[in-house]
What we know:
Elements: E1 4-5, H1 13-21, H2 37-50, H3 55-75, H4 79-86, H5 93-107, H6 111-130, H7 136-153, H8 156-164, E2 173-174, H9 176-183, H10 194-204, H11 210-226, H12 231-244, H13 250-266, H14 270-286, H15 291-307, H16 311-328, H17 334-350, H18 354-367, H19 374-391, H20 399-408
Parallel strand pairs: 1-2
Helix pairs in contact: 1-13, 1-19, 2-3, 2-19, 3-4, 3-5, 3-19, 4-5, 5-6, 5-7, 6-7, 7-8, 9-11, 11-12, 11-13, 13-14, 13-15, 14-15, 15-16, 15-17, 16-17, 17-18, 17-19
Amino acid sequence: MACSCRDSEPTTSVALAAVERASGTAPEAGKPAALQPFQLELLRTAFAAASKFPLDPHHKNRSRAQEVAVAAAFELDQPELAIELAADIRDWRRGCAHADYAWVMATRGRRPEAEQHLKLARQVQQGARDDQNGQEWRGDMIALKMSRAYAALGDREQAAAAAAAIDVATTHAVDASWAQTAAERVRLLPPELAAKELAELDLGFPTMTLGQQGTALALMARLHERFFTDAPLRAELEQRLTVRYDKVMPALRLDALATMVRTSVARGERDGARALVAAARGIVTNHRWRAEDRLPQAARLCELQFLVGDADRAKVEAEQALGEWHREREQIIDIFRAESLRPLALAWHTMGEADLARDLLAQVLEEGMENPNSRPRCDDLVDTLVAMAVRGIDPTASLWPRIREIVAGLGEPW
């Protein structure tokens, strides 16, 4: 079974958290809620830090880090901020931002803006297609997002045409953004076709590549959310994630299970959510992980355990995970230390321990400075600032000067 990851996939823990929290539903219509001033400053500071990457030879790293801040702005329901920031992205990822913006506008009934940004997305896509040194999947990512926007506008022919241009090889890579975008089509699926959709996924699943299976699991999580009141279908979907597809890459199953847990809690089905958390715990426990991969999963379990109402167990396990991080720290490569500690800090914040969370995030910032090269330092800084913005964590007065000092210090060697 093929497995590949491409540089379009956010692999950081904050990006993973963003994906798992997303329900896949369209943004709410109406005026977006205003950000707190500190959230806006965190996002702008993150984008400014990402923009310090020199274009030559680090244009890929630059745009990938910039995209983390843009994606967070979209997640926080700030499409105008997202597209403002994206204007400074110098490659194909700007096309993705235009297509994402078009989708948001389409879901809000703002057709002229959607069509305008679809044209802009198409222009960037054409440039990516014409680039002799480019890779096909980059244009395909824009095409998928354009197809989603056209579908939201009700332009089925345009949506189909955009999707038809996608090379099937592009679907083979493990890519969270691809999977979540593709899963959005469930929003327009008629209820009478939901069971048929699942049957078709089951039929093709054994021969799918790992990336295709990741997309299939994202589709199942989206079906679970969209048709939650269909109890038999819901049970079938949960059975796929907890039992039937037990040989699938654990991280992919855990992503989908986390989404199902949050959906179940939101719908008042806490007993069902607890059963899903127990299944997720079994997956984490029974798999052999590197410490830097296991600790973010443990942190997510703590958050989910807290979410289903078992705060005491969640905090005990968070304390255990934090102790494990300290014991394992020297064995974790320095470029992974911040990435493995950050989810634990965020989990403590979720559990109401704001002071401890801020202390840990301050440590995360320092752990990100361990490497002498600015590339990993910048990536860690961007991820931390974006995570704080998304979670609504206001830095302390003493932490802001340190953040600005770190940004100012980014430079050679990269």
